[in-house]
Every structure is written in C-alpha cells, then in structure tokens.
C-alpha cells in the first residue's frame, strides 16, 4: 500500500489488484488443500490437474469480466 500511495494510485483498485493476485496464486498452488489431502490419503498430484483446469477457465472469465466492466 505504501507503493500505491507513493504513486498516487487509487487505493481501492490497488487493494483489489492485490486480492486478485492472491486469489489467482491460491488456485495455482493449492496449499489450502494440503490438510484435506493428508486426511484423504491423497497427494498433490491427484488434484493438480483439476486445479490447473479451474485456474485456466476462471482466468478466461476473469479477464473477460475485467475487460467488459
């Protein structure tokens, strides 16, 4: 946020940009799923294909939404 203030950028848009970036990385690197995978006896390889597919589809929807609005 200090960088956004120094550049004179809109703080609301800066906060949303940070949140979008964090959400995108949480879909690419599913650290949130590690406890559930351990309980289920699965590995990260078992769900990475699904995570990447969701990442790509949501990325397309996200870019279209940002472009139109």
Compact summary:
It comes from Escherichia coli. This protein has helices spanning 2-7, 11-28, 34-40, 45-68.
Which value, in Å, is the CA radius of gyration? 16 Å
| Uncertain parts | none
Structural class: mainly alpha
Number of helices: 4
Largest sheet: none
| Average pLDDT taken over every residue | 88
How many E-type strands?
0
Q: What pattern of helices and strands is seen along the backbone?
A: HHHH
What's the number of domains?
1
- Overall outline: elongated
Relative strand content: under 5%
Instruction: Give the N-to-C terminal Cα separation.
Output: 24 Å
Helix percentage range = over 70%
Molecular structure report:
The chain is mostly helical and 69 residues long. The protein has one domain. It has helices at 2-7, 11-28, 34-40, 45-68. The longest helix has 24 residues, at 45-68. This is Short-chain fatty acid transporter. Keywords: Membrane, Transmembrane, Transmembrane helix. The chain crosses the membrane at residues 47-68.
